[in-house]
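Encode chain A's predicted structure.
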Amino acid sequence: MSMAQTIGKPSRAGGRGLLATDLSVLLVAVIWGSSYVVMQDVGKSVSAASFLALRFLTAIPAMVLMAAPTLSRLSRSEVFSGVAFGSLLYGILILETVGVQHTSAANSGFLITVSVILVPVFERIISRRRQPLMVYAATATALAGCGLLLLSDGLHPRPGDLIILAAAFVRATQITLFGRKTKRTTPQSLPNLTLVEFVVVFALAALTSGFTGTPVWRAAGSVSAGNWLLIAYLGVLGTSYAFFVQLWAARRSSSTRVGLILATEPLFATAFALMAAGESIGALRGLGGAMIVTAAIVGRRFEGRAAPTPEAA
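Encoded structure for chain A:
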């Protein structure tokens, strides 16, 4: 079955099939949780833009294989949408890649999760779509948790925390706009659209690297074998594989179930930060992170239970 066919009505898996689906999504959360430590490690010797370009250079071949059945039918609207959302994706990832160098891996994992509970707020503003009161209560709780993280080292938050928080705002905007567009336009092939996004991210990152003093074509030659493995790990598994699993799992179970499992990403980010990066989590930071994760899970659970408000013409 082609990837394009998986965009139709979801089919529900049961028993062992559902368990396998959940474990696949959980693996994505683990990989994403480890990505912050990986970005910190590789970032010591590779600039953010070059790292991002190389990451997507390794992701594109796998994405080409996924899009192969529908690539010959690539439409103009898919290209235009891919360029727009690819530009936003580049903004998210370059902020993440830079931000994680100036804060802890644990804080990065917690703060980027804020995007999950900002989406309902953005939908209320942009699409006038109402949500249950619990969703907005979860948003307030997550923002309070952000405050604890930002102030855990005193009245002067780390620059990286603010950069990661900016990435969360951009991610929430991208998710909101993508959901709004898919409801208003003709169906598009997600593999085609994602492939265009990947190419755009690679092109923008490669272009940006030219202004950092170390263009990607020069940086590639000086990357160590160990760093190439880490870059390929995030490119193939953390990017292409993660996309495939989310699409496949949403069809076999539900988008809400997938989102709830992915909300555990900060827990794995913290685990890797403690074990691999030697970071420490104080009581204030732990409380703030717990508030954000809890808010994300609660928000996911209650999201969509209220009937949407009719949009103005």
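Residues 1-10, 307-313 have pLDDT under 50 and may be disordered.
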